[in-house]
Design brief:
The structure holds two protein chains of two kinds. By secondary structure, chain A is an alpha+beta fold. Chain A has one domain. Chain A is built from two helices and three strands. Chain A has a three-stranded antiparallel beta sheet with strand order 1-2-3, covered by helices on one side. In chain A, helix 1 runs antiparallel to helix 2. Chain A is rod-shaped. Chain B is rod-shaped, with a radius of gyration of 31 Å. The chains are: A alpha+beta, B alpha+beta.
Chain lengths: 122, 133
């Protein structure tokens, strides 16, 4: 009887199963990162729109620039904006809770800032 | 001294089961499954790129419409093929709602599957000043 015979049966199945699980876990991790990236992109766009909405008031109604920006953000995006305005610029900071449950442990909030102002004549 | 390698029931010999080559056969069977998983990952990356592209384009489109400018051809050409543009101005609220919709095919050759991607952006409508003179 051949006692040195080594069975290869099942070796590759285990290897492939491990590789498939690793790939799936990697895909899930990438998917979660993607979710946060898209949320960040959306928040950036919201911050830009809010800053521009506030900047429209700078020329003739500077005192109300931040109030208008905050109202625009609250009405259209449901997010309260932190605002700072001077005679030429409006700076906006928006923050939202991270929608991804797992990544919110490490990154509880996502933030986006934007600045808009009156274009110079140059 | 020569030894005869054989498989089967000869006189007084037990059946010898040989398992060499199983690994190659299993690998050949498992490759398609592994390829499907890899294809899913690659599709996810493709979806991500398209979604981020749409989000960025929607913000830009809302800004263009908010300023009162027409959508330029260069903007339309930069969108993924078959993208639908929906513009909804709300004059009372002084905002414009700009939506981009597209369909992306992520299925494999035998299993076609399409997924709808949507991106939405809003911008304040800027007042249009008529030029004097």
């Amino acid at each position: 009887m051949d006692r040195t015979t080594k069975s290869e049966s099942g070796q590759i199945s285990i290897l492939v199963l491990a590789a498939a699980i690793a790939f799936l876990l990697g895909t899930i991790a990438i998917g979660m990162l993607v979710e946060v990236m898209v949320a960040q992109q959306r928040l950036n766009a919201k911050a830009e729109a809010t800053a521009l909405a506030g900047a429209l008031e700078l020329e003739f109604n500077q005192e109300q620039a931040c109030a208008v920006a905050d109202e625009f953000s609250t009405t259209n995006f449901g997010t309260q904006a932190q605002c700072a305005a001077d005679s030429a610029n409006v700076a906006i900071l928006l923050s939202e809770p991270n929608a991804n449950r797992f990544l919110s442990i490490f990154l509880p909030k996502i933030q986006a800032s934007s600045r808009a102002g009156i274009a110079s004549d140059d | 001294m020569t030894s005869e390698v054989s498989v089967g029931l000869d006189e007084g010999k037990h059946l010898v089961q040989r398992s060499h080559g199983y690994a190659i056969a299993e690998f050949a069977l498992a490759i398609p499954a592994l390829l499907i998983v890899v294809a899913m990952s690659v599709s996810l990356v493709g979806l991500t790129i398209t979604q981020i592209q749409l989000e960025s384009a929607a913000a830009l489109g809302a800004r263009i419409v908010g300023r009162g400018d027409p959508i330029p051809d260069s903007f339309r050409n930069s969108l993924p093929e078959g993208t639908e543009i929906v513009i909804e101005p709300d004059v009372e609220a002084e905002v414009v709602n700009f939506t981009l919709k597209t369909t992306k095919n992520i299925g494999l050759i035998l299993v076609p599957y399409q997924i709808d991607l949507t991106a939405n952006a809003r911008a304040r409508l800027e007042p249009v000043f008529e030029e004097f003179g």
